[in-house]
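#onboarding

Welcome to the new folks! Below is a worked example of what a typical request in this channel looks like: someone posts a single protein sequence, and someone else replies with the predicted structure as tokens. Don't worry about understanding the tokens yet, we'll cover that in week two.

Example request:
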Amino acid sequence: MHTVARLRHEAGAMLVAEAKAEAALKNTPEHRAYEVAQERTAATLAELRHAEAAARELAVKAYAETGSKKPARGVKVAVYERVLYDHDEALAWCKAKAPALVCEALNEQACRKTALHLPGAPIEVTSDPRARLDADLGPLLTEAQEEPETEAAAEAVRV
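Example response:
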């Protein structure tokens, strides 16, 4: 118990010393400059997240207008298939028409993979386009930009 008592006493003294050192440090111009830099970084990162989201949204709009999966330099649109269905309705349909997709329960992975090839199935397949921004957009800062084909693509380049 002596060790515990000693360590508690030392830890308490260290916490007091740390608090004093932190208070002294916060009163320095260097620490204030550090805090300002942190605030600027946080603001810039928040603005970046907003601009990236806007650029992705505009790229998807440009894709919808033109069908181009590269609506602007530095961005690509990938189209994912989404398979939508009511589980119970699909299970009943598969039991009647596609029993290979059913063991004791609906094999959802197989159902999703074969959804396009199950005519009459109570399954809807939709497209879900998503824009991806290139990791390195540095060349856009220095190179002359080509004229985009659509207004949405032009806006995506500006963002």
